[in-house]
Amino acid sequence: MGAPDFMATRMAAEATQATSSNATPAAAAPLLRFDEVSIRLGGREILSPTSFEVRRGEFVCIVGASGCGKTTLLRTASALVTPTAGRVLRHGVPITQPAREIAFVFQDYGRALLPWRTVEGNVRLALEAARVPTAEHAARAAEVLAKVGLAAHANKFPLQLSGGMQQRVQIARCLAQRPELMLMDEPFGALDAMTRQGLQDELARLVRDDGLTVIFVTHDLEEAIYLGDRVVALQANPGPGRPSLARMIDVPIPRPRDQLSTREHPEFVRLRRELFTFIEEGHG
Which of these, 177, 108, 185, lies nearest to 144 by C-alpha position? Predict the structure, then answer.
């Protein structure tokens, strides 16, 4: 091969490599894909065939009326529920069993924590399950407790903490797994408004700092818009002409977001009205 031909080939290869390295997240393969997932329980269709993708680093919120299958759909992504039909894939591979790379934050933090273990002991539980060497436990636990602002409470027991602090312990335990995907089932639903807003901002910071991907179920439409890059809206009683996935809404509001100015943003107000109308119509 002559020098000009060699140089042309090399330049073409470098151009291809540069294009690949600069690919946008939208062009990259999805971290998670729901592929025609449907669920029947007790002879009733909870979820009609539903398909959508979640990209790496994305925060996706799921909303809908009670009983529409939000939590059930979330649990299929962690293999806690097996779809009646369809499949959930992570990096293109079907999910068939729980994995360390997928962490689940439950709504009932009181039952999720072991009351006889200290805060640090509860965090270490995740490390024990993942068979992390014991010598690493103290440093890993201290690292995640510092991230959620609980370093000074490591030796307390769950019952000595407020509800918001207990939920932060559960989040810290999940972070100790070093997951790439965090599934959250109405984690702030039982908290008062001020505590909830504080944890929303803390979660947004953790997601930004750790590059986490999150799927977050909530009944609170404002919470979904405030936290999400996208909102998936499900409707109840699916059937012919009434698919479960009724809306897929992008949230183009700039980050970082603020509890006051973001909620006054015209796009926030418009999206809240759209989602509220959707939920109201779903009850009809």
Answer: 177
